[in-house]
Amino acid sequence: MPITEKPIIEVRNLTRRYRDRVAIEDLSFTVGEGELLGFLGPNGAGKSTTMKVLTGFLPPSEGSVKVAGFDVSTHPMEVKRRIGYLPETPPLYPELTVHGYLAFVAALKQVPGRAVKAEVARVAGLTGVDDVMGRVLQNLSKGYQQRVGIAQALLGSPPVLILDEPTEGLDPVQRADLRALIRSLAGRHTVLLSTHILPEVTVTCEKVLILHQGRVVAHDAIDRLAKSHGQAEHASLEEVFIKLTAA
Ligand SMILES: Nc1ncnc2c1ncn2[C@@H]1O[C@H](COP(=O)(O)OP(=O)(O)OP(=O)(O)O)[C@@H](O)[C@H]1O
């Protein structure tokens, strides 16, 4: 990353415990404006916990998180306004139509009443759900449901998008479509993308952060990762990942 890149997410010495279980410990990293960062780690590494603290859904036990200069502990609303979040399980209301749901979330996000129609149409166009606006959510394919999940995250045009395993459970075509969509959002938004599918990261992201047992074990450009972790230059992301997360 060029040193001049302006950080929009700043995580300092962040620890989060669930009672006496340490989920993430002493994490420090920054994410630059417009970056698309792959957020990786084996099951239980602490990805979802980190994302929940970043989005203000869980308070930190120690340390600090700033988004666009606002501290999540002291200015949670300012932070939430700047983040679009797609949790691992998207909060869809199965009986609502796509349009009804997006209008409902727009109201929750305090999009002014007169702007809701245009804003819903904008995110529907970006995510390619405009042809299913009248359909009930529970009848949509998983691929379309994930698109609606991303559409709700985009409402209000937050500068940061946090997407927790958005391609999980999709077929290869739906996955490729969604990947293209996510790539198209980078630049205009800073995107944190958590996934288990490493080849997907290689084609979608330039940088990755790898968590293992609640700690950062790598944070680098993919093309520098192998070298900076003492492995053969041609080693794949998968090989580096397995090496760093064994044990
Ligand atoms: N609500 C909770 N109460 C207690 N422990 C929890 C809770 N949520 C997560 N944990 C624990 O915290 C650790 C990190 O979990 P987290 O869900 O953040 O990992 P993850 O990397 O997102 O995993 P996955 O890839 O399986 O979704 C794990 O040991 C998990 O069991």
Automatic annotation (TrEMBL):
Cited InterPro entries: AAA+_ATPase (IPR003593), ABC_transporter-like_ATP-bd (IPR003439), P-loop_NTPase (IPR027417)
Source organism per UniProt: Corallococcus caeni
Keyword Lipoprotein: no
Swiss-Prot/TrEMBL keywords: ATP-binding, Nucleotide-binding, Transport
Protein family according to the UniProt entry: Belongs to the ABC transporter superfamily.
Keyword GTP-binding part of the UniProt annotation: no
Domain (ABC transporter): residue spans on this chain: 9-238
Name of one Pfam family that matches: ABC_tran
The protein's name: ABC transporter domain-containing protein
